[in-house]
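User: My instructor asked us to take a sequence, write out its structure as tokens, and then describe one feature of it. I'm not sure where to start. Here is the sequence I was given:
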Amino acid sequence: MVWLNDQQKIGVGLVSLGSLFLILGIILFFDAALLALGNVLFTSGITLLIGPQKTFYFFARKQKIRGTVCFFTGMVLVFLRWTFIGMLVEGFGFLNLFGDFFPVILNFMRQLPFIGSFLNAPGVREVCDKLAGARTSAV
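Assistant: Let's start with the prediction itself. The structure tokens for your sequence are:
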């Protein structure tokens, strides 16, 4: 079992709250205040979760620069109250930055009690693997 220090626990809480505010902001017709608060909480939570130096290196990697520019440009557009366009640009950046983690998240969710049985159903499994970009082994 992985143990987190206090700073990482706060980071997990901030990422969770940031995600909640982002979802609420989208549900409530792109409310600029909720989306801006969600962006700040999510970004600061990532920084606390993995540390400032690793966060900088994650966003500054050469292969992630397009995602980084789109993600932060979308955040600025949301702060300037261009919420719909900002969220589109930010979503594109988010997919470019964090798209590599989707197969890992999918495998984790398949281990959960109720969700896992649904995600392992014959028709759903292939669709989820295709959407997450999971590669199947030839062996």
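For the description part of your assignment, you could build on this observation: The mean pLDDT is 92. Try explaining in your own words what that tells you about the chain.
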